[in-house]
Task: structure prediction
Amino acid sequence: MSATSHKSSSKNRRQKKRIVYVDKNAPKRPRSAYVHFVNARRKELTDSGRHEALRPRSFLADIGKQWKILPDDQKKLYLDKSAEEHANYEKAMEEYKKTEAYNQFQIKKEGLMKQRMLELKKRKNDMKSSDDEAIFFYFEDDKSEAVVASDIPIFSKEFLAYNKSQESKCKKLRKMVSALQEENDLLKADIAKLSERMKLICGQQHGAVQWSTKIKQRWTKLLIDALAYVSVDGEYPTPQNIETYMQKLKKLIVENPSSKDLIAVRMALSEVNFT
Result:
């Protein structure tokens, strides 16, 4: 059997799958002789502690072989159990069919089956209508009518009018696409220019920061060297306290401009070359 035929057959089986409506109040269905044998064998293995033999694949394969070679006298035990269950089930079902629960389930089952049939019928009609839909050609005229393609003779006036209107629409769309493409290209160019400008500005800012840092370092070194022996409020300038030192010096200039320390500061700074 080919893969295609296998797929189609499996698909048909899925489509023909029967829906079973279960009545929870009905008597329990009887088990077959084989099921009785499987349950008995499973109990034996469980009681003996041979749990490794209960693995689903190996157990089912082995139990099937054992059932085939089981002697008739032993197999008869399970057949009798199954027959007894079937007889009891038939009697129980006869009694159950006389109850109100059975009647209610049958009414419910019939309703579900009708609903299912309506759904299948609707689905079938929907599929048929979708397959039978005609392709429509629309053309612009005073009435804006929709005409079935099979009703328009090819190369007729209506057909040519429709083609002409569609060509006009296509031209308009192409113009719109072209205009949008040009606008998109302009936006890309503007974005590229802005990106280059931002890089340039960032580079300039970085250069300015580096330059100002170098100037500050140079002036700080000049001040520390020039005022190395000038004490302000008992403190000499160092790279660590230069800012505090200059603040104290500023305060001294404001509060006591005639201080001897300021004379020493002026003499020291007069010899500094800040160029």
